[in-house]
Amino acid sequence: MGVLKRFEQRLEGLVNGTFAKVFKSEVQPVEIAGALQRECDNNATIWNRDRTVVPNDFIVELSTPDYERLSPYSGQLGDELASMVRDYAKQQRYTFMGAIKVHLQKADDLDTGLYRVRSRTLASSESQDPQQAAGGPGAGAPQQRPGGYGYPAQPAGAPPMPSTPPGARPAPRTSGAGAGAGAQQQGQTRRWIEINGSRHQISRPTLVLGRSTDADVRIDDPGVSRRHCEIRVGTPPTVQDLGSTNGIVVDGQHTTRATLRDGSRIVVGSTTIVYRQAEG
């Protein structure tokens, strides 16, 4: 059984009384869990052939409405998410430098249904085995200084990391079901997709949709391939089939590639995706 499926089953066991309100949020806990898995994969650092270190301190930024719905349960939900990260790390043979923590935080620049995950590697201040229930030896591990959120931690002896990198600092990854979405500058075209009532903002040149946790937007539909299709931001924006089993239908036409306009409807499996764009 997969890690995400076990996570969902644990949450189902907790759904009673007021805790059930968690699932009325636009952002679903399983979407955050998938984003945390990707955060580990994207920030894994190989120390040696037996040890790959991943972040252990995570901040999940939420829109004001989503944060207000989820924050009363942040302790319990954070513990479950941390447990999921630990299970995933054990499966992937990742290790940690300290205890796993998942925090919820409000972000005023996010719309309902969008979230942003930031992470860093923090060495434990306690005299304990730095390995936290994940594969690989814990003894003799290199010591690290804490890295800032969005930056990897550095080995001892490395030049100090600037608090503000030269030039513009890249925007942290923002997700709707794990999709990147940063704040849009005023005057730019805003682009997003709508799936089953949830909005997923587009701020990357490409956005991969599929059933895999590696997809930018994960679609839980048995008729959807792991990497089903890709939206490409350009002039004009397009959608491209990625060799999926069942193909794509755009505005009623079976196709492998199509131009998108505001309101275009993309059907993958039994799921309809509406593409939206607006000046703003």
UniProtKB/TrEMBL annotation:
PROSITE patterns reported in the protein's UniProt record: FHA_DOMAIN (PS50006)
Record region (Disordered): 121-190
From start to end residue, where is composition biased (Pro residues)? 157-169
Supply the source organism for this entry.
Answer: Streptomyces niphimycinicus
The beginning of the lineage is: Bacteria, Bacillati, Actinomycetota, Actinomycetes, Kitasatosporales
Q: Tell me where in this chain the FHA domain is found.
A: 207-255
Protein name per the record: FHA domain-containing protein
Pfam families membership: FHA, FhaA_N
- Residue ranges with Low complexity bias: 130-156, 170-188
